[in-house]
């Protein structure tokens, strides 16, 4: 199986390095992406928006002659949902790592501090305590050293979707900072935050208790969870 891995904000393809070994050992082909504007701190980010990141995922799908599994972390969850919408017949499963699908007309996060065309990684005290669970001082230092500013418009552009067949693509939600039981309670209560997720026809939930960056805090367990989701797909 071809597995396309989409990082969350401030991260590039290398952020998946400790997650992919069990996938490769199982014989799968992994395709971690570095999205436009995330190539380096000095890369140009002016004019890069959410659609550019979705288009990069779609281009990766189109280079593969066969079905794929999409994996998206954090803001990457919204981006892979755009890929599902664009190629619902080719995506066999979408795996959302501490994230979920974003509905039409919504934004990923327009509350982040902007500097010109950039959204730099905020200071740690800007995050909730639950997001930082298990992120040690050493991991924080390594994360900040590798962080690349996110293109401003990726966070604030409105999501555009067009193909309701996206709701037929099976999904796996890997819940880290927020438990799956709380997510399902929100769905039952009709919370707008999970409105798009509630429309999916086939969803499984997997709990991986840690903070918002399991690829750093629990990479082996995250790799195993993704592998299990892939095995349930093929």
From TrEMBL:
Keywords linked to the UniProt accession? Hydrolase
InterPro entries, per database record: AB_hydrolase_1 (IPR000073), AB_hydrolase_fold (IPR029058), Sec-Metab_Biosynth_Hydrolase (IPR052897)
Instruction: Please give the superkingdom of this protein's source.
Output: Bacteria
Which residues are in the AB hydrolase-1 domain?
A: 3-222
One function term, GO molecular function aspect: hydrolase activity
Q: Which Pfam families match?
A: Abhydrolase_6
Cross-referenced PANTHER family = AB HYDROLASE-1 DOMAIN-CONTAINING PROTEIN-RELATED, ESTERASE_LIPASE_THIOESTERASE DOMAIN-CONTAINING PROTEIN
This chain's protein is named Alpha/beta hydrolase
Q: Which organism is it from?
A: Cryobacterium sinapicolor
């Amino acid at each position: 199986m071809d597995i396309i891995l989409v990082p969350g904000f401030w991260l590039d393809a290398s952020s998946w390095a400790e997650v992919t070994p069990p996938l490769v050992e199982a014989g799968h082909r992994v395709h971690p992406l570095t999205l436009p504007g995330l190539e380096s701190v000095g890369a140009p980010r002016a004019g890069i928006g959410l659609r550019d990141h979705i288009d990069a995922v779609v281009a990766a799908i189109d280079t593969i002659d066969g079905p794929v599994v999409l994996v998206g972390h954090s803001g990457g969850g919204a981006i892979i949902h755009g890929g599902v919408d664009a190629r619902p017949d080719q995506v066999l499963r979408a795996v959302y790592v501490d994230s979920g699908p974003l509905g039409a007309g919504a934004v990923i996060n327009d509350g982040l501090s902007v500097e010109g065309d950039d959204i730099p990684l905020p200071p740690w005290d800007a995050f909730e305590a639950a997001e930082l669970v298990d992120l040690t001082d050493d991991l924080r230092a390594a994360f900040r050293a590798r962080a690349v500013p996110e293109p401003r418009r990726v966070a604030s552009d409105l999501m555009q979707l067009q193909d309701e067949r996206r709701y037929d693509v099976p999904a796996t939600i890997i819940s880290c900072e927020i438990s799956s039981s709380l997510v399902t309670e929100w769905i039952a209560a009709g919370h707008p935050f999970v409105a798009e997720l509630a429309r999916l026809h086939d969803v499984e939930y997997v709990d991986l208790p840690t903070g918002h960056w399991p690829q750093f805090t629990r990479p082996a367990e995250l790799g195993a969870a993704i592998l299990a989701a892939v095995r349930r797909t093929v």
